[in-house]
Structure to design on (352 residues):
């Protein structure tokens, strides 16, 4: 049978093992419920309820990914998925454009042939869908006349192409490239992606635009855990002329004469450089089930009465747990230390 001393030490060990997770949980609740949420310029997309779908785009089973096209020749051949709330990207009074950073994983699967590819885009319209046949659903086919702006109906678009089809008429360098489109289907910069966009495997992309430096960079990797040191595409570009006060962020794809499945998942996005932009770094690994997006920039989330009440409860519970721990330590000290002192005194007297 264990001695009282051994039993108390065992209890103390169990408390020491079990209490830290509870304390950590309390700390997590405190951080998540006491601090105001950052602006909506930073969000993790909840696919099922926060996207505007156009054309052939659809939410995948499980609501953790979106398919921009179908693996068939049916339908319109192009699809677009946009975050339903606009993002603040420009301040007209100062002509200041926001910087932005985004990360997402995509997969292009032929069925059996390839389509045109997909693109990440910022656009001033939530309802416009461009043409297929090389246009990636970004621009109308009439924009290929080099007149561009006159044919766009006032819609401005900035896009990063992940192109899997060479269209000579659109000045594509090959059937596997990444490119920057600034208001036109005719890319202002393109490069080899460093990966095979047509491999049918998940590829993670990081896109970053620094407004003050007027520089856009794109990194690509088969691994979602580490961004390559060197970008696949790095281009000097002043995008401020294409920015509107609020724009929509999302993805677009088209199949043209092919039939490929273009799927996007694990998307994060943020802006920075404006007065009310989020300055927190994007997460290194988005959660499997993205959280609910935040409110628009002019409506930051604040603590409600219920949240404050819960926060007070957490403080009280934390204090009680801390008191219990101190009491246990005091009991252990008295049980272990005082008997040992008594035995030592008895031995001393017996020796004398």
């Amino acid at each position: 049978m264990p001695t009282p001393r051994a039993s108390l030490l065992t209890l103390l060990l169990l408390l020491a093992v079990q209490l830290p997770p509870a304390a950590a949980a309390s700390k997590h609740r405190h951080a998540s419920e006491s601090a105001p949420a950052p602006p909506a310029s930073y969000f993790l997309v909840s696919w099922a309820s926060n996207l505007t779908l156009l054309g052939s785009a659809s939410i995948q089973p499980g609501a953790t990914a979106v398919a921009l096209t179908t693996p068939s020749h049916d339908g319109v051949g192009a699809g677009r998925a946009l975050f339903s709330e606009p993002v603040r990207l420009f301040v007209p009074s100062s002509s200041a454009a926001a910087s932005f950073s985004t990360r997402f994983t995509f997969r292009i699967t032929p069925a059996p042939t390839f389509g045109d590819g997909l693109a990440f885009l910022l656009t001033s319209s939530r309802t416009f869908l461009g043409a297929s046949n090389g246009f990636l659903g970004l621009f109308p086919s009439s924009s290929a006349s080099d007149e561009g702006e006159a044919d766009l109906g006032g819609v401005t678009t900035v896009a990063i192409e992940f192109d899997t089809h060479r269209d000579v008429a659109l000045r594509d360098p090959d059937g596997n490239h990444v490119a920057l489109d600034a208001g036109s289907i005719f890319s202002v910069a393109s490069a080899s992606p460093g990966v095979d966009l047509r491999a049918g495997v998940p590829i993670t992309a990081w896109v970053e635009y620094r407004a003050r430096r007027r520089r856009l960079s794109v990194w690509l990797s088969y691994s979602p855990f580490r961004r390559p040191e060197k970008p696949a595409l790095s281009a000097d570009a002043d995008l401020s002329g294409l920015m509107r006060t609020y724009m929509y962020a999302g993805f677009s794809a088209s199949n043209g004469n092919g039939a490929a499945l273009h799927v996007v998942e694990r998307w994060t996005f943020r802006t920075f450089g404006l007065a009310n932009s989020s300055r927190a770094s994007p997460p290194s690994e988005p959660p499997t089930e993205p959280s609910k997006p935040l409110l628009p920039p002019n409506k930051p989330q604040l603590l409600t009465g219920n949240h404050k009440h819960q926060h007070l409860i957490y403080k009280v519970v934390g204090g009680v747990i801390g008191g219990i721990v101190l009491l246990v330590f005091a009991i252990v000290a008295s049980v272990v230390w005082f008997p040992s002192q008594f035995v030592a005194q008895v031995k001393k007297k017996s020796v004398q």
Q: What stands out?
A: The longest strand covers residues 260-272. The CA atoms of residues 134 and 167 lie 6 Å apart. Residues 305-351 form the longest helix (47 residues). The two ends are 35 Å apart (CA to CA).
